[in-house]
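Q: What would this chain look like folded?
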Amino acid sequence: MNYLEMLENSKKNIGEFCKVCKECNGISCKGKIPGPGGKGLGLGFIRNYEDLRKIRLNMDTVYLNKGTNTEIELFGKKFKYPVFAAPVGGVQIHYSDLYNDLTYSKAVINGCHKAGTIAFTGDGVKDEVFTGTLKAIKANDGWGVPTIKPWSKEEVIKKIKLSENAGAFAVAMDIDAAGLSILAAQGKPVSPLSKEDLKEIVNSTKLPFILKGVMSANVARKAIEAGVYGVIVSNHGGRVLDETPSTIEVLPEIVEEVQGKIKVFIDGGFRSGIDVFKAIALGADAALIARPYAISVYGAGEEGVELYTEKIGRELAEAMIMTGASNLSEIDEDKIR
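A: My prediction, written as structure tokens:
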């Protein structure tokens, strides 16, 4: 199966909400929740995509060719590409019941592992969603990052311990999910957490802890003070608050605030290896992608995940060749405009 065949197959399987648009830009699905759309006017999602289009790459093919290396080392592990699957939950609600959260997580974990990267996995109202995901991570020698919702401090710490027992080599929290009213409607509300609570959570484990949902230098500063390993610049795909800035728009101020003290990841509107190149040029260590991975799973399961990841990796390598970057450290602001 090739990439285009996978997309056509996904259209048959993914349900009525997602149209598997030629450009996954948030316009056709704006306001569709349940579904993959951004909240309200959908501007958080739409801006993520459109602001990435405003950044151009500077061609340079006059240089000594030393080969192209897309590898990155994080969490003490080496990955083939700086591209990871972002956590996606509630797939039966937002897509179709061909997959549930457990079978979806298994497909994305296995597919990413085969492609040499990792998946950040989701959490849910039912405990078996999280514990089932951990079984898939354990089966892949810890190659997955369980992502916990901002439940109570006690429950978060409990789930971190479960992650440790599963052999996960990092753990994350999508604190931007604090605005997901759909969880409260299912009987299990989430809420913001104080810096003090966050620090206690971070100190409860020796695993690298990643905080997802950082959208300003001020919040990045709080995350550093809490002791996190890294942050993910994310507005939750525009699904929790309308009219936010795009993630690529706020990335430079966060990178400046962090000054290399912690790792910086980013998601939001990333659709190609060229998009990943842009984020790295602006100081990110790696990028996460969500909706296209859901499309890939519904199109061809773990094979679709592997296929899509390799596509992104090839595009990144091609961009590096055409801009004179032999490795990720050579991708800087001189390569873009």
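The chain has twelve helices and ten strands.
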